[in-house]
Amino acid sequence: MAYLMNGSVTFGARFRAAALGLMATLSLSACATDQGGARVGSASGAMRDGGIVMPPAGWLNFCGQNANDPSCKVVRLDQTRWKELQAVQASLRAVRQVAEKKGQADVWQVANGQGDCEDIALLARARLLAAGWPLSAVRLATAWTENGDYHTILTVDAVKNGTPITYVLDNRFAVVLSYGKLEEIGYRFHMRQAARGPNWVAVRS
Q1: CATH number of the domain residue 66 falls in
Q2: pLDDT tens-digit readout, 32-56
Q3: Can you name the residues that pair with 201 across neighbouring β-strands?
Q4: Which has the closest alpha carbon to 118: 64, 19, 7, 193?
Q5: pTM for the complete prediction?
Q6: d(CA 32, CA 93)
Q7: For this UniProt entry, which residues form the secretion signal (predicted)?
Q8: On the CB side of 67, how many CA atoms lie within 13 Å of its CA?
Q9: Residue pair 14/3 in contact by the 8 Å Cβ criterion
């Protein structure tokens, strides 16, 4: 994961929550569709990320000497950023969710007044990017809801009070919720965009 902050360097926090990896190659319709036991595929010979480990001492020293390197810099989630999240979340409630017709191709596009859950999540993403949020911290994700429906939302990686946390913008709710809170509600997260590039990664509990 990449974490949102605002100019300060908190290198350890970045590595405590690096992206979990398994490249996803499935193209899914992700609104109230039960995908059953669908598995995430990966190309033969592709490297898969494992658990988080402490980086080499040399890399820590490098970041100490090169604080402006993009891989070393993290940004604090301050009140301004939090208000931006809340404003975008509130704006999603004004978008009318409509389901795609059966047999119709699954087309993802930024919602314009109406759209399905993927379109609404793309709208949230577009608004945060326009506000200057880092691309690597604003990622689409899919999950099964507490009702068993397959759903698309937007995840936002941040560091709050020195602790990594992932927030979720979901048009089903009136407020911004944390990833952990949605798991408590009954969400089962499936996959999300990789921090870089076009691939997606599996979400591991």
Answers
A1: 3.10.620
A2: 433 344 444 444 465 555 544 666 8
A3: 23, 192
A4: 193
A5: 0.69
A6: 18
A7: 1-32
A8: 6
A9: yes
Region label for 75, one of left (φ > 0), alpha (ψ between -120 and 50) or beta (otherwise): beta
Q: Please, are residues 170 and 182 in contact by the beta-carbon 8 Å criterion? A: yes
- Count of domains for the chain: 1
* Alpha-helix runs per DSSP H in 66-138: 79-92, 117-130
Vertex 2, ends 43 and 135: CA angle to 5°? 80
Range of the domain at 26: 11-202
Length of the chain: 205
Is 4 a member of any domain? no
Q: Which amino acid is at 110?
A: V
Flag whether 1 is in a domain: no
Task: Count Cβ neighbours within 10 Å for each residue of 7-25 and write b for 16 or more, e otherwise.
Answer: eebbbebbbebbbbbbbbe
